[in-house]
């Protein structure tokens, strides 16, 4: 996904963010001028290049709001990262088999995961992350044995958690199970960034679009009333089927990744795993982009549609949500 | 496998609605751990009660902090306290009934033979409001400013404070300079008595009619502190502070007994009398005081998340008082509860002009004198236990119970006085209940 | 492999024993210190109530912060 831009950007400054608020030591975000009153802020988060496009006559607020939003994104990244030894994720997993109290943010994420699990008939399951220990989608042909998969499936299953929506902050995590918030983390961060960004401006006019590595949310139309022009890249090398859409409200999210697959005996296994069988979903589209009122909503719909395999298009059509699908065959 | 697909369109609409609602709840909710400009309120109520019907106090506090970001905050605190009960007036017990003029001069109270003379007219209500603002200047500097006002029926105080902090060594070291000033006004009941003057029989005396209505004192504070992060679980602070007070530092309600030291007479060690009246003098303290203190505190969090908080303070002043204070707390932390035992030990040596009583042969020659046990040799002990319960919505209920014990000591006197208890101890119990939201 | 391990740990010991100048932590090691419970005055309301009691019952005050005052109780 890319933005269509027609101006000569100029680097204005690097935004200094206190080291304690940058736990993963990202490079300093850069503020670029795209010709007043347009600004672009480039930053790194969750292993993606991210950016914000802002239209405002108050550059001071742009800087303040951008910093706050980036700090929030980095906080979320660090909180739920699987690679930290002392974050919320690590704390939850360090206390298996006992009742523990989750913080409010985690409890809210659990509630969301619960709803998604319910409505998807179990296809969306944040406990399924450990299946990746068997499946390595690096383009190779290594398909795990059924025994391997069965051994891991013991630790997969939302209903095996000691958790109920009546007490979303109380959790008993069975030993060996893992909660993977990565599937909704990026979209969640984008929505939170937008919300925080707008709170700084209050009543001051501003238009902003946040791009978290392909997951996008905007505040509304641009100051001139037009939509944001967002390009949806095709997966073909020559970008022949690139589409440019106009986004004037809400969010876009994309699920799927062309580089992550397994090829065995002529069957292309997508990286989308069915938590009920432990096997990849067959004939899933390469990627799906969905538009929805917020990024979390768009993201979950895109993910659920991939889980429908070759019924993805029919599924999205039945929901009557705008969507763009890159089919399996290239 | 593809369960949803087999369902009807209607069912999928339902699904879309649920997911839209769930995502709105997630994103729109108050769920961020990020302190998004909200008020954090800590409200508490303290009940303080001394044994033997001495002072009891009720003290509600409400403190509200608005956090603009991790370093910028505004705090307001309102405290009220109501004191009732009796407080030692400074006179020694006696083998005779003693009658004392009340502070206003319009009445009297007495102490039975052998009983501690307590002024039971002691009653006060105080209201204090303070505010503090703290914010960064840039990445290396931060500042804070504050103001304070308090009012009692016989005392008013107005204060300001400011601080400047410099972060060094990647914020592992913080140097802080704090300055404070306050201006207090004392307008005692019955006016300001004349120090070391004999307590008159009633308000018709010329000592009363010549009194000033009020006096004042001013206080300056300076604190220089170093805070050092030792490792990822330990932080340490070292402060040097200096405090000067000048003006009226005397307690207008405290008196001293004059004891007959004529060892040949039969009143040796009894209250000295002139014209058949016991002689009691109003106390008088120097009009300036310079206190200095060294303070060290360390906090350490163990692998099991428990926290140890230990501090030591050494204080000395130009009145001759030196003191040592050791305070230790250990917080056992459970999932959403904690239990914190606390211990404190304090010892002080007496001020140079402290005297439990004055000798009849020399009382006219002293420059300063006070029999206030708080300026005498004193050891105190506090043992406490705090318990807190954190609810899922991040509010907290807490309570603390503590016992406070004081032991005074000093010269036991002579003659008849030796049979009197000159240094009674004091026990107090404190119960605090609070809620943070 | 094991040889390299030993060497590394020896280096570690040297650093920690000579390391007063190495005091402090990196920004990403502040998870514990950033907890509200680890701030030096983590219960300001309790501290102020205690300070008030001790101020009115003892000859010393202050040290951690300002020396107190603003009260006719001493």
Automatic annotation (TrEMBL), chain A:
Q: What class of enzyme is it?
A: transferase
- Keyword check for Flavoprotein: yes
The domain of life for this entry's organism is Bacteria
Q: Name one Pfam family in it.
A: ApbE
Write down the EC number.
2.7.1.180
| Cofactor needs | Mg(2+)
Catalytic activity reported: L-threonyl-[protein] + FAD = FMN-L-threonyl-[protein] + AMP + H(+)
Q: Which family does it belong to?
A: Belongs to the ApbE family.
- The molecule here is called FAD:protein FMN transferase
Automatic annotation (TrEMBL), chain C:
Which parts of the sequence belong to the DUF4266 domain? 25-74
Write down what this protein is called: DUF4266 domain-containing protein
């Amino acid at each position: 996904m890319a933005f269509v831009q027609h101006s000569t950007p100029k680097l204005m400054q690097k935004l200094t963010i206190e080291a304690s608020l940058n736990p993963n030591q990202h490079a300093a975000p850069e503020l670029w001028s795209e010709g007043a009153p347009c600004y672009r802020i480039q930053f790194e988060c969750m292993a993606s290049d991210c950016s914000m496009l802002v239209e405002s006559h108050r550059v001071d607020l742009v800087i303040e709001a951008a910093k706050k939003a980036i700090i929030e994104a980095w906080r979320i990244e660090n909180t739920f990262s699987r690679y930290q030894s002392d974050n919320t994720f690590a704390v939850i997993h360090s206390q298996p088999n006992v009742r523990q109290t989750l913080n409010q943010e985690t409890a809210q994420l659990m509630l969301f995961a619960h709803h998604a699990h319910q409505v998807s008939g179990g296809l969306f399951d944040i406990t399924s992350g450990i299946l990746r220990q068997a499946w390595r989608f690096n383009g190779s042909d290594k398909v795990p044995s059924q025994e391997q998969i069965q051994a891991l499936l013991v630790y997969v299953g939302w209903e095996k958690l000691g958790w109920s929506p009546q007490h979303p902050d109380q959790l008993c995590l069975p030993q060996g199970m893992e909660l993977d918030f990565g599937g909704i983390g990026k979209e969640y961060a984008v929505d939170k960034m937008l919300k925080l960004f707008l709170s700084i401006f209050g009543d001051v006019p501003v238009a902003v679009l946040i791009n978290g590595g392909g997951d996008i949310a905007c505040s509304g139309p641009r100051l001139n009333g037009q939509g944001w022009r967002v390009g949806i890249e095709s997966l073909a090398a020559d970008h022949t089927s690139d589409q440019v859409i106009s986004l004037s409200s809400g969010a876009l999210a994309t699920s799927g990744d062309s580089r992550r697959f397994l090829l065995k005996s002529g069957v292309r296994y997508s990286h989308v795993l069915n938590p009920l069988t432990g096997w990849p979903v067959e004939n899933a589209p390469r990627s799906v982009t969905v538009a929805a009122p917020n990024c979390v909503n768009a993201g979950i719909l895109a993910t659920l549609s991939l889980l429908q395999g070759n019924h993805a298009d029919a599924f999205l059509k039945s929901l009557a949500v705008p969507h763009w699908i890159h089919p399996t065959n290239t | 496998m593809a369960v949803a697909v087999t369902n009807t369109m209607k069912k999928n609409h339902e699904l879309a609605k649920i997911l839209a609602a769930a995502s709105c709840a997630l994103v729109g909710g108050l769920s961020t751990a990020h302190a998004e400009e909200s008020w954090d309120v800590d409200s508490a109520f303290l009940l303080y009660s001394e044994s033997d019907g001495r002072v009891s106090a009720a003290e509600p506090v409400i403190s509200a902090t608005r956090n603009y970001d991790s370093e910028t905050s505004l705090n307001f605190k309102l405290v009220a306290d109501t004191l009732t009960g009796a407080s030692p007036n400074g006179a020694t017990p006696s083998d005779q009934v003693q009658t004392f003029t009340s502070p206003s001069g319009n009445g009297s109270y007495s102490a039975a033979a052998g009983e501690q003379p307590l002024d039971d007219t002691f009653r006060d209500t105080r209201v204090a409001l303070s505010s503090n603002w703290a914010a960064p200047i840039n990445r290396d500097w931060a500042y804070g400013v504050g103001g304070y006002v308090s009012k009692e029926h016989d005392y008013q105080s107005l204060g300001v404070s400011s601080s400047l902090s410099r972060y060094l060594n990647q914020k592992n070291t913080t140097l802080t300079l704090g300055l404070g000033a306050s201006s207090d006004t004392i307008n005692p009941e019955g006016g300001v008595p004349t120090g070391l003057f004999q307590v008159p029989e009633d308000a018709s005396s010329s000592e009363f009619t010549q009194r000033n209505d009020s006096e004042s004192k001013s206080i300056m504070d300076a604190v220089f502190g170093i805070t050092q992060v030792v490792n990822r679980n330990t932080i340490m602070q070292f402060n040097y502070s200096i405090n000067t007070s000048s003006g009226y530092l005397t307690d207008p309600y405290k008196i001293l007994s004059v004891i007959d030291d004529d060892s040949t007479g039969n009143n040796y060690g009894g209250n000295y009398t002139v014209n058949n009246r016991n002689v009691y003098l109003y106390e008088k303290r120097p009009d300036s005081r310079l206190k200095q203190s060294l303070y060290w505190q360390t906090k350490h969090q163990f692998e099991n998340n428990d926290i140890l908080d230990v501090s030591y303070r050494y204080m000395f002043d130009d009145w001759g008082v030196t003191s040592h204070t050791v305070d230790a707390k250990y917080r056992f932390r459970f999932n959403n509860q904690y239990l914190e035992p606390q211990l404190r030990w304090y010892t002080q040596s007496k001020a140079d002009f402290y005297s439990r009583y004055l000798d009849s042969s020399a009382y006219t020659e002293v420059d300063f004198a006070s029999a206030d046990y708080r300026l005498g040799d004193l050891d105190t002990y506090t043992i406490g236990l705090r318990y807190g319960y954190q609810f899922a919505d991040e509010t907290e209920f807490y309570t603390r119970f503590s016992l406070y014990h004081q032991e005074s000591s000093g010269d036991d006197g002579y003659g008849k006085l030796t049979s009197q208890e000159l240094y009674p101890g004091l026990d107090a119990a404190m119960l605090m209940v609070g809620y943070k939201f | 492999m094991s040889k390299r391990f030993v060497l590394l740990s020896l280096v570690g010991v040297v650093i920690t024993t000579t390391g007063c100048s190495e005091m402090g932590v990196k920004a990403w090691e502040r998870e514990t210190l950033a907890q509200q419970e680890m701030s030096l005055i983590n219960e300001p309301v309790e501290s102020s109530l205690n300070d008030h009691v001790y101020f009115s019952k003892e000859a010393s005050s202050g040290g951690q912060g300002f020396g107190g005052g603003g009260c006719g109780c001493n």
